[in-house]
Every structure is written in C-alpha cells, then in structure tokens.
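Supplementary Methods, section 5.1.

A reviewer requested that the exact input to the structure prediction be made available. We therefore reproduce it here, unchanged from the version used in the analyses.
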Amino acid sequence: MSLNSQPWNDAQQAVGWRDMAPGTPLELPTVSPKPSSPIIAKARRANPSRIRNWTAERVKVAAARAGFVVSRLDDESRHYVRVSHNDDVPLPPGAEATLRGDNPKLVELERAYDAFDVPATVHTQWGSAFLKRNLSMAWFRGDNAYVWQFRQLRSAARAKTYLQLLDVESRDRLGLLDKLDEDGLFGAFTFEYGDRPPASRDLIDSVNEINYLNDHIGLSEIRGLRVLDIGAGYGRLAHRMSTAFPDIAAYDCIDGVPTSTFLCDYYLKFRQVPATVRSVPITEYETLGERYDVCVNIHSFAECSLETIRWWLDRIAERDIPWLLIVPNTPPELLSTESDGSHQNFQHLVEQAGYELVDSRWTHDSDERRDLIGVYDKFFLFRRKED
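The structure derived from this sequence is encoded token-by-token as follows.
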C-alpha cells in the first residue's frame, strides 16, 4: 500500500501521529462497524445478477414510458457502430501516405480556398471541425460525411441494403448493375447476396441516379454528353457515369470544400477515368465549360446557405444548361442549412434562376420498400424555361 493512500492518512489523524515522539509505538484505534439498516442488509445478501436484471428492467420501463425502446445491439449493429470504414480490402500502395491532412497539395488548396472571397467557400456545415469528426481521409468511401451508410440505415443494414438493391434493380433499364462493379476500396462497406456481385451504397445510388436521368432526359442518347457536377464530393458519380458512358465529352466536378477537390482529383486519377473527366478547383471556376447538357447536385445544396446556393445557381444560369437535377437530403423539400442551424426553402431561388420543376419523386419508388428501407431522399428535376 502506498504511503499516500487514504487509510494511512486517516490513521495518522486518528491517533495524532504528527504529535508523537520518535520511537513511540503506533496503536490504531478499534473501529466498531456501524449498524446496518434492514435494506442494506438485504442488499448485501442479494444476488448481484438479479439486482442488475431488475435495474435494467426498470430502466427499460422508464424509457418506454418516455417514448424510447431500449434493446441490446446485435453483432451486426455493434460492428457498424464501432467501425467507420471497412478495412477488409487494404488500401492501395501509397494511398495512406498521400491521403493525409498535411499533404502539401491539400494545404495549398485550403489556403487558396480560404483566400477566395466567394459565398461558395463560406460553409455552414462543411467546416474543418465537421470534417475532423466525420472523415477518415484514407478511408473516404467508408461511413462518413460523404456517404452515410449505417448512420442512415441504422440497424439491419444488410437487409435494408438488399431492399435498396432490389428496388433499383427493378428500374435498371441500362443494365448498369451488370456493367459497373464494386471493389470495396477506400473503406466502402459492401454486401453480397446470392450470385449477385458485391454492392455498396456508392454503386446503388449511382445506378439509380443515372437511370433516372436516362428515363427523363435520354442521357444515353445524348451525343457528346457534357455534365457539370456541383458539390461532387470525392467524385463518386463522375466515376460511375464515365464508366457507363466511356465516350463522354466532358464531366466537370467542382466543390467549395478543398478536401473534396483534393479527394476527387486523387480518386478520378486512381480510377483512370477518361481525360475529359476532371476535378476543377473553385478558384478556377471561370474555366468551366460554356455549356453542359445537365447539371447535377447530389446532397450538396441542402448543406449550404441560401447565399451559397444563389451563387451556384448564378453560375448555372450563365451557362444556359437545359437540365438541373437536385437531390436533397432534407426530405421532402428543398431546404438550405443556415449558419444558425435553421433550414430555409430554396426552390424559389431555382425558379428565379430560370428553371421550372418538371418531375419530383422518391429515389426509392416503391412505397412498400421505401418504408422498410427508411431512406426518404427525392429527385427534383428542373428544366430551363424557354425565353
């Protein structure tokens, strides 16, 4: 026992040790146990496991009365709560050394974006603190700020992903689920069902979005297809669309977040996409093409302020783009995210930019499956108004 332990100090005080002459034998006082109450006595005799079970049951009852259900996480749910990415597939050589917050290229982008005075570089959600909490750089395709997999699906992710796959498979008229593959790189969680190839949310969402655009604007029939992707993230859709349409004339990715631009540039080069697919720094937005066939914004405007959205819409209107697809993650409306945490409808800004809504529907069209999946994103397709 340490000389600094509390029992020894108590003994010193009890016998007046500091006032004793050297060599005097130390006699500790006899301490009589305090009488126990009947309740304490019963508690001492009780079975500890029964006490724990009783306490847990009372907690469940109290929570249920307050509107909450308390249950033990199964093995699958516990795994997804603890892990933010899937490391079953190792990182490619050099990825960990490159995908770092102190990479000189990323640091340079951050400085340039900070100094670039446009509304699109002023963030109400995607600040540095948000990224530190929600992104593991080298595992950017895991469950994080770019792709919510388990935080949105919650428990039974494997079963819900299967329902998503079935729903999208039923509308995959381009047969993209057979053409596009999923290798699970950079932390993506993948699932296999029967003889089907591995699937991920990256793959399922991309196939769904490409088929939707094909159904409504004849995407696959547009010769010299040109796409502008605002808020492109790490380049998920650019990779998938350029693989589906290898003769694509142009696919420009642009984002107001320097980390996104950095990751997108890395990812597109890693995937060896055609040279016509590129990541454009926002500081070079004036180098964007003069025209595009369609502009897409997936889960981006909903995480920006009205001022930022208005700035981007001005850039779209300047190019007279005939089609605009917006997929918010604030169902069922087009809502912004303001600096005070409030959300404002921005559909009127889209209309002021010269666009009219021609179609709006759930990304998972089946009412039965959508309720079981628990994902309530919507497609909002706008068309440029004729003068």
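Confidence is low (pLDDT under 50) at residues 1-35, 39-43, 67-71, 76-83. These observations are discussed further in the main text.
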